[in-house]
Amino acid sequence: MPPARLAGAGLLVCLLGWAAVAAAGPSAAVPPLGPGSPDLGLRPSSGLVSVLLAVSLLSGGASLLAGWRALSRGWRPRRYLLLALAGAVLLTLLPPVGSADHLSYAAYGRIAALGGDPYVQPPDTFAGGQDPVTSAVRDPWRSTTSVYGPVGALLMAAASLGGGDSVRATVLCWQLLLLLAWLAGALGLRAAVRDPDRRARAELLWSANPLLLTVGLGGAHADVLAGVAALGTLLLARRHPLWAGVALAVAVGTKLPYGAVAVGVVLAALAGGHLTRGWLLRGAAGALLVLVPAHLWAGVHAYDQTRTASRYVSLATIWRPLVEAGLPRGYLLPGTLLVMAGVAFAWWRPLVRGDALGRAAGVTTLLAAGYLLGAAYELPWYDLLLWGPLALAAATPALTGALAARLTLLALAYVPGLVDGMSPLVETLTLGYRREVGPWISWAALVAVVVLGVSARRGTARPRPARPRPARP
Known about the structure:
Number of strands: 0
Structural class: mainly alpha
Shape: globular
Distance between the termini: 63 Å
Strand content: under 5%
Mean pLDDT: 94
Helix content: 55-70%
Low-confidence stretches: none
Order of helices and strands: HHHHHHHHHHHHHHHHHHH
Radius of gyration: 22 Å
């Protein structure tokens, strides 16, 4: 089968598999949303939804890799993009799949909308635990205050105002907000990237990326909003620094790690020689215009839970086996920084090149990839930090392939998604894969990225000028 057809078939299977799980009703992958939920109420088994999600993710990964190969043959993913956008709309109208994070978003928004403080009041104590929205939060997050930034909290509050007392309506308002952001990002990317080859590559890796559409948008994660805002920062930075600052504020004000895009933009501007005081001031003004009032509203406790969460270690990261073997957690941050430095060294020369947008995207890609590969706490949807910049950076087939394979296998480690509702067999298999296999997938991905980067670095090294041969007598 030609790569283009394989890409299209993989995308279709990916979207349909994910949608089938969402439409089937509450399960080990889909928490109940209460009255008004647009599902069939079939209550499928944890085994069935796990198989469907695994097929969906593997098909999505295969579609992405086949599409990348088809691009080298001159393929333009127009119909592929239309199918992806149709799938995005469909997944938005169905219940989110793969976690219960959206219930936490609804709860934090509800608390803020009713005048409470989501950074102080956990969902299980708000309104005596009797509120119809906050009481829907699932374990283990019932007693956890918000870890999201003030801008994200305000947007969650806006969704809550639209949804009122209904969990389903609140989640739908949130999903529609994410869909609008995704469409805005896709349109902005298409308008900003004029070169046909570069646009096709960017649309495949971002706008129509089946893994991002399912794991991110299909899971209704806040990372979608932050990722689109980070993408907007890159697209606007060169010519519209004020608006780039506003976009950056939305990204960072939702999730702190998205500050990587600011570092990428500034370092690229410095390397390109167009870093000026006026440009910096306009960008900073745009960011402060949003961040200052948002933080004044949020108060002094906005980052309490963020500091607590900084010591968490998820199961499928490189650090989990080391921590279980006795590594002090104080070594985690230096270790992450060391990984980031290694990835940056390996890939700087092959990736940070081209025009201003390409250089900024390249630096941001290095920071994001290093952070995700070396972070102590990492989940599949966190990859939205990476794929926007990667889509705009210089073409690197080896790096793209390695990161696509990593995301596919990492996403499989978090199937079906919820911490309850699994049969003993499914729990044994999925948690076993996550705990025993996941860390070694992460280690293999890190080693592969560094080795491929060193190889690519040597390939792009400037050849030394040939020494002149002495003239023969």
